[in-house]
Automatic annotation (TrEMBL), chains A, B:
<protein>
    <submittedName>
        <fullName>DNA processing protein</fullName>
    </submittedName>
</protein>
<dbReference type="Pfam" id="PF02481">
    <property type="entry name" value="DNA_processg_A"/>
</dbReference>
<dbReference type="GO" id="GO:0009294">
    <property type="term" value="P:DNA-mediated transformation"/>
</dbReference>
<comment type="similarity">
    <text>Belongs to the DprA/Smf family.</text>
</comment>
<dbReference type="InterPro" id="IPR057666">
    <property type="entry name" value="DrpA_SLOG"/>
</dbReference>
<feature type="domain" description="Smf/DprA SLOG">
    <location>
        <begin position="128"/>
        <end position="326"/>
    </location>
</feature>
<dbReference type="InterPro" id="IPR003488">
    <property type="entry name" value="DprA"/>
</dbReference>
Amino acid sequence: MTAVPDLDAALAAPAAEGGTATVRRARAWLTRAAEPGSVVVWRFVERAGPVAAVRLLRAGRAPDAVQALVGVRAEQDASAADLRRADRCGARLVIPEDDEWPALALHALTVAASGERADSGEMSDRTKAPVPPVALWVRGPGRLVDVVDRSVAVVGSRASTAYGEHVAGDLAHRLGERGWTVVSGGAYGIDAAAHRGALAAQAPTVAVLACGIDRVYPSGNGALLERIAQEGLVVSEWPPGAAPHRHRFLVRNRLIAALTRGTVVVEAAARSGAQATARRAGRLGRPVMVVPGPVTSAMSVGCHELVRDRALGAVLVGSAAHVLEEVGRLGEDLAPPPEVATDAREGLSDIAIRVLDACPVRRGVSPERLAAVAGCGVVQVLQVLPALELAGLVEWTGTGWRVAPPQRVTPPRKEGRPS
Amino acid sequence: MTAVPDLDAALAAPAAEGGTATVRRARAWLTRAAEPGSVVVWRFVERAGPVAAVRLLRAGRAPDAVQALVGVRAEQDASAADLRRADRCGARLVIPEDDEWPALALHALTVAASGERADSGEMSDRTKAPVPPVALWVRGPGRLVDVVDRSVAVVGSRASTAYGEHVAGDLAHRLGERGWTVVSGGAYGIDAAAHRGALAAQAPTVAVLACGIDRVYPSGNGALLERIAQEGLVVSEWPPGAAPHRHRFLVRNRLIAALTRGTVVVEAAARSGAQATARRAGRLGRPVMVVPGPVTSAMSVGCHELVRDRALGAVLVGSAAHVLEEVGRLGEDLAPPPEVATDAREGLSDIAIRVLDACPVRRGVSPERLAAVAGCGVVQVLQVLPALELAGLVEWTGTGWRVAPPQRVTPPRKEGRPS
């Protein structure tokens, strides 16, 4: 603890401007000092640079509007403690200066923010503003930029029905099977069902929280969040320990929309938060997808409202294939589900099948890893891999082996029978 | 029977061209001689006139294409028997020369038919062609043109679910309550539920059949069709006794689409007949409305396909209010449900309430009729009517008394909460 220099001393060091550690420290301080979602603060940090911005705020010499938003927090400093606390729970602070920063995805927020007027000071305006985060607290093994590269948000009501949970879970599972990451809010109901569906497919899933990445909120989702942190990512703009204040959910929603290629709303009551996330995705130019339900269900009213809103241009979806038609890459994701041909498997040895089943869908892994998962020797793995590759079942990514993506097949266009 | 002159003699009479009876006889003959849905036949009848058309066909001197479609039926004649048979079951032949012919509604078919090429002779083409009927067999008390003036088609799968039947019945009931006629196909499932819902609201409903108006088809709907004939209308292009051949349903569907202001599909399997009716309505420029359902239900797959087809421009609907937004007259049907203010009723005498409840929604009726329905004297009716009128509860249509239409109220625009 004593080894960590005082914040102001660290920022004043000659190499401060260029040092990543200093920039990270400065951004860590900003995540606690300035409530995320403020255009004014974000612009100030962008223009001054994070280190200079913190120096100015600490000295009380930032522009009045910015200084006012930070208030007494300018005098406090928990940045070193926050970084230590994150480290203890296996988390880190990812900053725009890092390689794993999802710059492309968040670019939509940068563009949108440049069109925003300065904060009017009203909370309702601030929670709506499309502003990039100054940094992201991230807990989990994957590189953020990779994990969210091919991702879809699956969101919906906390007071979900069995129907909605079934659909959310099934959709997330199928998206996961095809190598897509499911992003959601870690809440009860649809969010939890979506995360669980993705985990069941052994696919990465991301929970974007409105509180610290070490908070167990909602309390009933503790085990789920722990599993997401082990196999996917838990992400937040707020520092460790931050409480899930109500308005933070609204600020958080823009991040779910921005990090993903599109947002699927599974169940939503009339004028609900899930609707808001969807509309935000629409404003960022991302596809808005809606799962319909019985018109007799209050939990589908919000979904149907979204489809009926022609200005929004939401698309009704009923399956993962429909979702991939909207967010997928042309020619790649329009393909039918990756069905490993039964006959191709039939000719395989027991070892070959175990190795095939051990291959991950996304990132390639080493033969050693395959051997460990398949429960056989590395030599055996190396013996069967050539046959599996010839059969088009696995492929070498340059760094490892994975399941070969589905063949490009043009799906037959369905048309209503003229009758 | 001997009083009815021979067809050819009737047609040859000097006043034949102008006489409505002769024209009706000629068109009756055509409904049996030429299968409906043929552009070639319809054009020939339009150009030659119905009486001359029949004379030419009987003499074998019609154009080859037309003569071929009629074939040996040119030599047969059941027109007088058909008219008698219709009369016996309380039906009549409504022809374009009649005041009650729904010329305006069917105009869309005339316009569409003028753009059609001559029949290629293939059944699939013929069943798709938008062609006006040469005449309509109609069974029931109302004037056809009045009954279908404000009408909506509610169609769907025969293999419906409890959900679909509930929604169809409820929708039809609410549309009926607001003075709209529900048109459907008299089939099992969604059709039957829609007819029943309308009847329960004491609103007129129209069953457009693919067989003779005196056929009990499907057999299980006998009592329902009987009730529709008593309180609404049973309509068909085919003469009495005609059998419900499979292709006739497809020909019939265009009529359901054309007679109504819009078509609501409640449940439809993938690539189903209900979808075809909806697409036909779309091609005629009529709004296509679709009730969504669980994505897990095979009976909603067709509905969702329709919503997803952007070219069709189908609108998702979940309530009668949504339907009326599409088909209603501006400023009239955008109003919220006609809720007779409870306070307005509270001040009324027992007799006044009974008279109010006796007032029909659509056509005005005489005080004598109101007295009969309300179970009181005409003098009492005449005593309470002025007060009811002053309270804005009833109105004089020029020919009778009816419930006053709902006040014009601009409904508050719903908007997603920014949160």
